[in-house]
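User: Teach me something about this protein's shape.
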Amino acid sequence: MVSEVEPSPLIHTQYMDSIIEKQEDGTIVLNITIPQKTVRETTNEIILSIAKTANIAGFRKGKAPKKIVEGKVDKDKVEDEVLKKLLPKYYADAVKKHDLKPIINPRIHVETLGDDKDWKFTASTCEAPEIDLNGYKENIRKITSGAKIVIPGKEPFGVAQDKQKEASFDEIMTELQKSVKVKVSKIIVEQEVERLLAQTLSEIKRLGLTLDQYLASTHKTVEDLRKEYENKATNDIKLEFILQKIAEEEKITVADTEIDDTIKSVKDENERKGLEANKYLLASVIRQQKTLDFLKKL
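Assistant: First, the predicted structure itself:
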């Protein structure tokens, strides 16, 4: 499980309305301040907008004075509308000022709200990790060449020497994990764990089971399940980044014709339409497979 102890920030940079902390695992925390003046002006804009369509007794629709509307509206609702308007802008400004390239949507936590004060919130995100391939080819070759070695007189009956068993996917992936150095941000792992848990809960519901029934049948606790998914998420994410890096280094690309041919090969019409609508994702899958083929041939 991800440790609850926060690592010390390695980099601490401050601008007028935002402070950035880059932690050891690559997690980026932006501490952002929205000036009270901006909050007040935006709040007034929201209230005026509400006033234009407000139905208040004694006044024609949209004609009630702002002060009366202000006393009638739900303050929490107004606050929410102000946040919806200002949070994306201030987050985007902070990302630009600190020259960041986030790869996931931020996790937002509002720290301070209220009248007549600056509003403060944190946005946690991460960039693509730095990857040291660390001479991985030599170690992969030990796996792939070992799989092709044939002891004279010990060839499997009826199998030619050039068709010996290839190194398995798991063997290559395990070796990559050992060879390549990469740190994955806890926030991207946490997001993937939440996705896996939601997927499992949906499947449990589809089967007509409760979570307690599922856990009892698998002899696991919620913490066991979360730990299992955390390990899976960490490994899967690391491998995805490693394969992307290798593809970049080896200039492995996907041609439009490869994407089109893959789509044409699918018999189910709905599945074809789904692939047509997600060509970028399909290209990523094809590129990953080509990278695996490259590794097997080392």
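Now, about its shape. The mean pLDDT is 85. The longest helix spans residues 222-249. If you'd like, I can walk through any region in more detail.
User: That's plenty for now, thanks!
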